[in-house]
Every structure is written in structure tokens, then in C-alpha cells.
Amino acid sequence: MQVRNDWTRDEIQALYEQPFLDLVFKAQSVHREHFDANTIQVSTLLSIKTGKCPEDCKYCSQSARYDSKLEAEKRIAVDKVIQEAKEALASGSSRFCMGAAWRNPHERDMPYVLEMVSEVKALGLETCMTLGMLNQSQAERLKDAGLDYYNHNLDTSREYYSHIISTRTFDDRLDTLDHVRQAGMKVCSGGIVGLGETREDRIGLLLELATLPIHPESVPINMLVPIEGTPLADVEKLDVIEWIRTIAVARIIMPHSYIRLSAGRESLTDSDQALAFMAGANSLFSGEKLLTTPNAGEGKDKQLFNKLGLVAEKAKATAAQLSVDAMAV
Ligand code: SAM
Ligand code: DTB
Ligand code: SF4
């Protein structure tokens, strides 16, 4: 199947609305054309600066504007990050994603994040960061330090966006994605479902992603984790089948991208997740914690992988990894 960047809203809607089993079958068929169907890419997340964020994203535990009871933490030491990265490697992750509750990194933060990137990269892990908006020069310096991926989500449709975030615009987000691409990094960009948006908005989000000049290599589909104290704390939970439809359509229209099961796995059963893999999802975040909320822990994931006969993509082995392996014995 040829990769297309000219999808129309009507085409995406037609895919979305077909009978569920037809949709999942089609998605699985497309998936098998481009990927090994039993291999999953696994990333570990770490929050390197938590809470007190100036932005007003209505879903987020880390916005300073809501009383989410989250304990804020200043930048954590690079040594601590490296220790966590070694543990992620030993537990089977191939990518380490570092997130900060910033609107954007300040210049004074750059030496800190650049050092971190080069040290994590030297372990043989793929590196990913999500630090908010980036200007072109910051994107280039991150690339030069060894950053492989930058995560920056569009979150929702252009139309619904202003209901969710008022402190930066949809176009600001597209500008950051453009800076990341221009710098030569891989893009991780997706969104959240279950924000109270309509199906049309979910279609709108997928349309934006699939008509970018180059599809994001990684597309996280987060399911809202409701956070007490935020404006979306009591929003009605989205039906799981609708989340699976979103994954399946993403798989079909972005056939070479990794579709990532992100936030929300804690609330899903093994069967829900198996269905998501059938629909073409092929990456996830492992570990006990996402950034601030609990995640399906390593033990649970190992059990799930064993039950389904799935294997994790391997990290590149390096001398540093060999010593981590030795530590783990
Ligand atoms: N501050 C940076 C930013 O917003 O770009 C990086 C971190 S931010 C927490 C990364 C992404 O996590 C958000 O864009 C959103 O898609 C997702 N996210 C945050 N809180 C969430 C929640 N409660 N439920 C589901 N997804 C969430
Ligand atoms: C993404 O799309 N989801 C991850 C990662 N990129 C940075 C973050 C999920 C955060 C879930 C809520 C929390 O733990 O604070
Ligand atoms: Fe801040 Fe990111 Fe949370 Fe928005 S999603 S409030 S930018 S940490």
C-alpha cells in the first residue's frame, strides 16, 4: 500500500464508520504488510521535571492552574535519569522518553537536557523527549546531542483544540513539529481520546496527522486518564470500541507509523489491549508509572506478552548495556 498524505475527511470518515470487524480486519491486513505482527516496540517514560506547568491543558495533572494534589518536583539530577534509563534498558525497553512540565525549555535548561540526551544515547537506548514547544535552534541542538524522537501531540482536532487548551494554539504545535522535522529528528505525535470530543473531532485529529508532509514515525493514542481537580475530571468515559476504531483507522491511513498505546492502559483489560494489537497498535509505554499516573507495570505487561506470544523490539547492544546485563544477573 502506497503511503498517502492526501487523505480527505470523507475517506477517513468512511473508514471509521464501516462495520467494526471489517475495520479491524483491514487494519490488521495493512499492519502485516509493513510490520512483524507479533513484535511490539516498548518505551519507558520518566518525568524529569514535574508539575507547576504554566499551561492550562484541561486534562493535565501538571498544570499549575488546577488543584490536582500533585507534588511538584524540580529538575531531577542527570545521574538519577541515567540510573532510571539503565533500569529501563535492563527491563527490555528500547527507547527512553524524558518529559518535562514546561511550556518550552528555557535557554538555561538546554545544557541540562543536552547532557542527558547524550548520556542516555550512549547506553544504547533510543532517546525521546517531550519538553513543550521548541524553536529551530533548540531542535537542532537536541538532534546534535543524539535525540532520536521528539514527542509533541496535536492532542485533538483543530476545531476542538481551544476547548482544551487556551495558552498555545494548534498552529504553535504544528510549528514545533516542523522545527523537529527540519532538524532531522523523528516525530512522535498523536492525541488523546475521551476528552468529551465527538467522533468528528477524532476524525479531524487523524486527518491532521495523516496529511502532515511526512507522517509521524510514532503516533500515541492516549485515552484520557481523568485527574481529580482538573476540568475534565468527570467527563464521561469513552467506549473502548471507539478507541479501538481510532487505532485501526490510524493504522490504515499511516501504514508505516508505529501506533502507540499510551495513557489509559491501566483502565483496560487484557482483551481490550489484545483487540488494540489486532487493530494495528504496535508500541506502548511500559513501567509502573507514565509521567505522574500509574501504568500497567512491567510484571503485568510481561504476562500479557506471554499470553499473546508477543515479543519486545530489542535495544541496540553496547558495551554499556553489557555491564547493565551483568548488573541484572
Ligand atoms: N509539557 C509537554 C507538552 O505538553 O508538550 C510534555 C508533557 S505532556 C504531559 C505529553 C502529553 O501527555 C500531552 O500532550 C497529552 O497528550 C498526554 N497527557 C497528559 N495528561 C494526560 C492525561 N491525563 N490523560 C491522557 N493523556 C495525557
Ligand atoms: C504521550 O502521548 N503520552 C505520554 C507521553 N506521550 C509523554 C504521557 C502520558 C501522560 C499521562 C498522564 C500522566 O501520567 O501524567
Ligand atoms: Fe503542561 Fe504539558 Fe501538562 Fe500541558 S500537557 S499542562 S504543557 S505538562
UniProtKB/TrEMBL annotation:
Catalyzes the conversion of dethiobiotin (DTB) to biotin by the insertion of a sulfur atom into dethiobiotin via a radical-based mechanism. [4Fe-4S] cluster binds at residues 53, 57, 60. InterPro entries: Aldolase_TIM, BATS_dom, Biotin_synth/BioAB, Biotin_synthase, Elp3/MiaA/NifB-like_rSAM, rSAM, rSAM_sf. GO terms for biological process: biotin biosynthetic process. This is Biotin synthase. Its EC number is 2.8.1.6. [2Fe-2S] cluster binds at residues 97, 128, 188, 260. It catalyses: (4R,5S)-dethiobiotin + (sulfur carrier)-SH + 2 reduced [2Fe-2S]-[ferredoxin] + 2 S-adenosyl-L-methionine = (sulfur carrier)-H + biotin + 2 5'-deoxyadenosine + 2 L-methionine + 2 oxidized [2Fe-2S]-[ferredoxin]. The keyword Protein biosynthesis does not apply. Belongs to the radical SAM superfamily. Biotin synthase family. Residues 38-262 form the Radical SAM core domain. Homodimer. Keywords: 2Fe-2S, 4Fe-4S, Biotin biosynthesis, Iron, Iron-sulfur, Metal-binding, S-adenosyl-L-methionine, Transferase. NCBIfam families: bioB (TIGR00433). It is an enzyme of class 2 (transferase). Binds 1 [4Fe-4S] cluster. The cluster is coordinated with 3 cysteines and an exchangeable S-adenosyl-L-methionine. One of its GO terms (molecular function) is iron ion binding.
